[in-house]
Amino acid sequence: MTRDSQTNFSPPLAGIRVLDFTHVLAGPFCTRLLADLGADVVRVESSKHPDHPWPSAFVSDDGRHASYLNTNRSKRSIAIDLKHPTGQRLAMELAGIADVIVENFSAGVMERLTLGYEALKPSNPSLIYISMSGYGHDGPRRDWTSMNMNLQGYSGLMMVTGAEDDPPTAISNSWNDYVGGLHACFAILQALDRRRATGAGSLIDLSQFECSAGMIGAAILSSAVDGQIPPRLGNRSETFAPQGVYRCAGADDWCALAIESEEQWEALAGLIRTREWNADPDLGTVAGRKKRHDEIDRAISAWTERRPSAEVEWRLKSLGISAERVRRIDEVVDSADASGVFTEMPERRFGSMRITRLPFSLSGVDLPSPLSAPRLGEQSAEILREWLHLSAVAIERLMKSEALR
Q1: Which of these, 139, 233, 254, 312, has the minimum number of CB atoms within 10 Å of its CB?
Q2: Does domain 17-216+340-399 have CATH number 3.40.50.360?
Q3: If you ran DSSP here, which 8-state letter would residue 116 be given?
Q4: What's the whole-model pTM score?
Q5: Closest to 326 (Cα-Cα) out of 239, 233, 247
Q6: In this structure, how many other beta carbons lie within 10 angstroms of the beta carbon of residue 156?
């Protein structure tokens, strides 16, 4: 059958059941991506061990911070005490019909709860099971506790950010959690594709440390090849010169630029009226300009400091130079292009909430609209009914037990 390009198809992960044993950010971000793609994501939570809140200006009436509400949108929640025998049995029954299980506890935790992959595989051989520990389940670091900050330090990431004389500098937005969650989602999609072809399940052992090291890129590869420690470049580049962020006329006003070609360099020299640069053979190459980067930066700053960043951006762009003014977070949220970044989500706790959307669209596919994050255990009864087909009497009995807490 020929498919009409205008036909709207189901979301890519429609019908996929995901059992979510994650907490804090890396795991919940992974499962949020799966939910955004249409999966039925069921969070297994407990009032005895509530998920760690992320501080923000807004806290809902049930103690959820705005970051939690965004990260756990479009999911459902069942409250289970995993240390209660009946709770463990229910979790195992849910795992028996899940397509995907995601967990980001320390190594060994799920095994102690009898919810490890080897315990679940016999009853669900097509299960895709991903463990997102800090350092993986093999090797001398398997039992180390991991957080975003120490992962950035141990992976070397802190020593490729900042400039040479700066102390080790972290990326402040929980970089490792988002990078780990993104890699986990990618691995799950690959495993689902493999299962469609072979019917086989998968055990995925993801190391968030390895995710961080792998994202350092050229710096770590260069060191692996020649054994040299790469310099910390700050806002500069190994490839382009000049490149940097330059102060402009307003308060805390800046513009970023990168010169990528000799034509751009000549245009910049003409614009800031340093035409002697064009006659200087030492500045005709990237290597020559890198040697005199400080001198060039001073001249650029002397020009930008007399103008607001919007004017600097416009004048540089009009000459084909890559330049953008540096925006504060509130400017990004309120900008004209914010509709491509954000969308509104109905949030019953306070009406609606602006959230980040998936940064892509799929032609002919309707991705699901985001739904309000669940309250703890909000859908316990309906999940037991839909996933396990339990009767109303059985569900009521369980709801009154200590297992669903």
Answers
A1: 139
A2: no
A3: S
A4: 0.89
A5: 247
A6: 17
Residue type, 399: M
Whether the CB-CB separation of 135 and 145 falls below 8 Å is answered with no
- Mean pLDDT (10-residue bins), the chain, 405 residues: 58 96 94 97 89 66 79 95 94 97 91 94 97 82 75 79 85 87 97 96 92 77 70 86 95 94 92 81 91 94 96 96 91 77 83 85 88 93 96 93 88
Neighbours of 219 (CB within 10 A): 18
| DSSP calls for 357-374 | PPS---TTB-PPPP-PPP
Which two three-digit tokens encode residue 36? 């955004």
Q: Which CATH class is domain 243-247+253-327?
A: alpha beta
3-state secondary structure of 353: strand
State the DSSP code for 246: E
Q: What single-letter amino acid sits at 34?
A: L
Strand bridging mode 351-356 / 342-347: antiparallel
Rounded (5°) CA angle 50-72-353 = 115
Q: Which two structure tokens, joined as six digits, stand for 31? A: 């499962």
What is the C-alpha to C-alpha distance for residues 330 and 326, in angstroms, rounded to an integer? 12
- Give the per-residue SS3 of 244-309: EEEECCCCCCEEEEECCCHHHHHHHHHHCCCHHHCCCHHHHCHHHHHHCHHHHHHHHHHHHCCCCH
In whole angstroms, give the CA distance from residue 9 to residue 17.
19
Cα distance between residue 394 and residue 385, in whole Å? 10
Residues 6+ apart with CB under 8 A from 270: 278
Q: Cis (ω within 30 of 0) for the bond into 242?
A: yes
Nearest to 176 by CA among 30, 74, 57, 77: 30
> What pLDDT is recorded for position 234?
84
User: Which residues make Cβ contacts (< 8 Å) with residue 89, sequence separation at least 6?
Assistant: none
For the chain, the structural domain boundaries read 17-216+340-399, 243-247+253-327
Residue 286, amino acid:
V
User: Cα-atom radius of gyration of the chain, to the nearest Å?
Assistant: 26
Sign of CA dihedral 150, 210, 204, 11: positive
Cite the DSSP H helix spans in 46-103.
66-71, 85-97
Burial class (CB in 10 A: 0-12, 13-18, 19+), 215: middle
DSSP-derived pairing of the beta strands 322-325 and 342-347: unpaired
Q: What is the pLDDT of residue 1?
A: 35
Measured in degrees and rounded to the nearest 5, phi and psi for residue 214 equal -70, -20
Dmax (CA) of the chain = 88
